[in-house]
Amino acid sequence: MEPNIFDKVQDVDLKKTMENAYIDYAMSVIVSRAIPDVRDGLKPVQRRVLYALQSLGVTPDKKTKKCATIVGETMGKYHPHGDSSIYGSLVYMGQPWSMRHVLIDKQGNFGSEDGDSPAAMRYTEAKMSRLAGEMLAGINKNTVDFMPNFSNEYEEPVVLPSRFPNLLVNGATGIAVGMSTNIPPHNLREVIKGVDCIIDNKIAGRKTEIEELLPIIQGPDFPTGATILGKRGIEEAYRTGRGKIKMRAICEIEPMHNGKNRILVKELPYLVYRSRVIEKIAELVKDKRIDGITYIHDAAGKNSKAKIAIECRKDVNPHVILNQLYKHTQLQETFGVIMLCIVRGEPKILNLLEILEEFLAHQIQVVTRRTQYDLQKCEDRAHILEGLLKALDHIDEIVAIIRAAKNVEEAKQNLITRFAFTEVQAQAIVDMRLRALTGLERERLENEYQDLLAKIAYYKEILGDERRLLAVIKEELDVIADKYGEDRKTSFSYDDILDAEDLIADDDVVITSTSLGYIKRMSPENFRQQNRGGKGIKGMQTIEKDYIEDLFMTTNHHYIMFFTNMGRVFRIKGYEIPEASRTARGTALVNLLPLQEGEKVNASLCLRDPKDEQDLILTTKSGMVKKTALSEYANVRRNGLIAISLKEDDQLIEAKLLSKDENIILVTKKGMAIQFNEKDVRRTGRSSMGVIGIRLNDGDEVIGMQESSQGENMLVVSEKGYGKLTEKSAFKAQNRGGKGMRCYKITEKTGDLVGFKLCDQDREILLITTEGIMIRMSLENISIIGRNASGVKLMNIDKDGDTTIASVAKVRESENDGEEDSEADPGEDADTEIAEINGEDTKENQEE
């Protein structure tokens, strides 16, 4: 009779059964698929691929092998899943845009950083990279545990020895069940320095604090470069294991020959595809969410430094367009850090210190087991050598015992009985070749024995002293850092004002700008003093018809106010001006300020606090002056503020901070000057036009304004290199609005005046030509002469060319350790007051 099928049916609780099954499935995915181990930073499939390469002998010093062979070896012996996941992991480990240091040396099409798929595995080849060899170094020395594979036919490693912190160096990403991991890649040198710090503290007998690691491991180092905005997200991720890191593309605004500008995207954020960015920009332009882009194209190529080129219309500010792109596209992206990994079989979120400590604990175990293995091998060999050397001392008797024996076993037993050899030693003696009887061979055996004794002592020292063990680990890590380490690819920038102030030191800087609107920030240590009449040194590299127009000293954290010819004012901080070398042209101001067509900066000043109770005096080309409280300019918007209302064809040429009861001096290009007291100028509102300062003759215009306290002598310089000093007292104070007095004799040889400064005779000046040549000289060699004279030649000008003097700048250098000038604020004479410009030890104190 057949058994009833219903006898095999069992009643179960479906809820409990599903819970248990799902938990088993979830843990299998977490531990065996998606989450990396904290010790070697690898997922199981990655570990199995590398071990399959080892078992196939496809090491870094061998030829590449078909990827299909590698996948077949991995799938057949170790990984019980599909070939697509194995090949995907193999490809990922060979992509230099995915991993900071690749573990696979690829041959063939492994895809592209734009998201293109790799070729089929039958077309590609691969082998282990040199750094991957370090992951597996010592695996045959019992350094790690092995476990049976899925069929119990072969054994595979539970974890790789991993001689460097791969989890942080190459990062990891994976989605499991109910959890995910997202660890960014880091710089190999920085991470190893972090481990070194922990080792040094362990040797010193103290615990490492995470604050010690933060300055060493600066932040993620993505293989695609780009820049990270701010450090708050990094610090949060390092302290808690979770955080958000803002990444931004490296972009450059480049002027084009047709007067337009284009934005060149040079480096993209990690895991951002170029094609998707282009598609998104095209969509934004089509929907008119961004206006002003005329053309976008993929600029990537073998010889191209840019990945995307974005052309802008002539009438738009490319800086504004770029900010819009950062806001609406993946040119600015967030990397959500979740430092989840498998720790002793369990998924855990660790902070930076805990990850490095777990790696170090793994290395202590690996090096200990490796040393024990090497010690055992040395002791075994030394034991045999002891028997061989003892046998050589009694060779005749031993030969007789062996010859008399009927077989090998009898010979071994007779040797053990006669000389107390061990089984191993006796076997080695009967296997000994006749060449061992030569003198050279005996010497070789004795040398080998002494070397083994030294190694045994060394291994025992390591095993007996934890500090010695830690020193060995540190030494091996440093070798890897020196051998494989690279400079950072990802830079850091600031995310807001606070971050900027934290990242940038409040150092002295020199700001220079040109007549065509190029500006740059330089270190003050750039120029050396020369004698009058010299040719000077090469300054800024200018383009045709451009020349240096303004130059002044400030600090990174001071505000710089820019006044334009159209009567508007803008304000940025010193560090927001890009730094450049002495000969570089600099950055176009249109990239920093939203200037209109035809608008240029004519005056600038710097100050620490824009809310100071001080007046600002402005001067226009037509002779108008205006006095306004500085506090009215305290809230300057990003797109500027009206500083003065101008008549038609008039321009703002000068702006200065004003002291009370100060005399103002104006000079025109035709050699007229007027001096009047600031009390003659009534204070007016921010958008007013001002009052008449000097009445001009036809064809004349104001070239400069100075405050009486800026010096005792009037220095005027003509466009053909002539100049003179005249005592300030030669110009009596008048009421504003007059014609003024003659201050210079204009001739065909001298040309019109181009520069005017008030200064003392012990000061120095910089003369700047329209070709960008700068010469520095002392005023001590220039005589003080009368008002109606033409002066002396200050600088040789090429008579055959079109070169002329463009501007004159004063140099301030304190010779009395700051006693005289210690009260001077950088904004007091912001046009050209320069301190310590030649890099000498004297320094002018700046009032904070």
UniProtKB/TrEMBL annotation:
Q: Name one GO biological process term.
A: DNA-templated DNA replication
Q: Does the keyword Isomerase apply?
A: yes
Which top EC class is named for this enzyme in its record?
isomerase
Which parts of this chain are annotated as the region Disordered? 811-848
UniProt motif (GyrA-box) ranges: 530-536
InterPro entries annotated for this entry? GyrA, GyrA/parC_rep, Gyrase/topoIV_suA_C, Topo_IIA-like_dom_sf, Topo_IIA_A/C_ab, Topo_IIA_A_a_sf, Topo_IIA_dom_A, Type_II_DNA_Topoisomerases
Q: Which UniProt keywords are given for this protein, alphabetically ordered?
A: ATP-binding, Cytoplasm, DNA-binding, Isomerase, Nucleotide-binding, Topoisomerase
Location of this chain's protein in the cell:
Cytoplasm
Highest rank taxon of the organism? Bacteria
Keyword Cytoplasm present in the record's keywords: the answer is yes
Pfam families, per this entry?
Answer: DNA_gyraseA_C, DNA_topoisoIV
Annotated Topo IIA-type catalytic domain ranges read 35-508
- Which Gene Ontology terms of cellular component type are present? chromosome; cytoplasm; DNA topoisomerase type II (double strand cut, ATP-hydrolyzing) complex
- Residues at the active site: 123 (o-(5'-phospho-dna)-tyrosine intermediate)
Per its record, the protein catalyses:
ATP-dependent breakage, passage and rejoining of double-stranded DNA
Q: Where does this protein have compositionally biased stretches of type Acidic residues?
A: 816-834
Also noted in the record is: Few gyrases are as efficient as E.coli at forming negative supercoils. Not all organisms have 2 type II topoisomerases; in organisms with a single type II topoisomerase this enzyme also has to decatenate newly replicated chromosomes.
Identify its protein family: Belongs to the type II topoisomerase GyrA/ParC subunit family.
User: What is its biological role?
Assistant: A type II topoisomerase that negatively supercoils closed circular double-stranded (ds) DNA in an ATP-dependent manner to modulate DNA topology and maintain chromosomes in an underwound state. Negative supercoiling favors strand separation, and DNA replication, transcription, recombination and repair, all of which involve strand separation. Also able to catalyze the interconversion of other topological isomers of dsDNA rings, including catenanes and knotted rings. Type II topoisomerases break and join 2 DNA strands simultaneously in an ATP-dependent manner.
Quaternary structure (record): Heterotetramer, composed of two GyrA and two GyrB chains. In the heterotetramer, GyrA contains the active site tyrosine that forms a transient covalent intermediate with DNA, while GyrB binds cofactors and catalyzes ATP hydrolysis.
Task: Return the protein name.
Answer: DNA gyrase subunit A
Q: Gene encoding it?
A: gyrA
